[in-house]
Amino acid sequence: MSETLLRVSGLKTYFYTASGVAKAVDGVSFSLNRGEVLGIVGESGSGKTTLGKLALALQAPQQGEILLAGQPWSRLTERQRQPLRSRIQTIVQDPLGSFNPQYNVAQLLQQPLRLHTTLTAADRLSRAQALLALVGLSPDLLTRRPATLSGGQRQRIAIAQALACEPDILICDEPVSALDVTTQAQVLDLLVALQRRLHLSMLFISHDLGVVQHMSHRIAVMKDGEVVESGSVDQIFRAPRHPWTRQLLSAVGQTPLRYN
Length: 260
What we know:
The chain is of the alpha/beta class and 260 residues long. It has 10 helices and 9 strands. A 6-stranded mixed beta sheet has the order 5-6-7-3-8-9, sandwiched between helices. It is globular.
């Protein structure tokens, strides 16, 4: 884990509202190494989703910098970012809302391949079939539209789509929170297996301590736009230093749900 793929330094993003200034992200710094999963945990409104958008360069920070593979990711123009876009992908909470409803599964999986590769149509289809197998789905689903699939199947397709161009980093924003507990466990176990098999780096964003514990090597705890504590999973769960971390742990009885 010696190679740093993502480096975030002093990020600040404020929103100005009728009631005053809302500090969405306030001086956040961290690094993400190759093959590492960094869990970002916090309550609703803590700034974790905004942090994910900043990491994806879907939003520009007002202060601070993000480096992607040593490149000034947050300061590049969108045209300059395009060659790097395939290296950092996202898995969202509600894939149905992000999928083109007119596309079937084959078209969805080939969409990033058309954008970021020079594969032929036949090779794109072959890659789509391989991606379905990678996430444990049958090739029979290629002709189906997402609306006809279960929530778990849609989330697996979203994972397959994110992996289509073999990214280095996945930004996972509450990727299982809309699923039932049994399906959550299955999708989380799939993500763990893929992370190890493909040596992926992940920024895993969740409000659920049990999920973050299951997925992460390190954890950063956010509150009111700040990272109030960070450390290894063992340190956060066994010897939390910040009162807010201890409060989050006490809310789950200090025995977060494990998925095994």
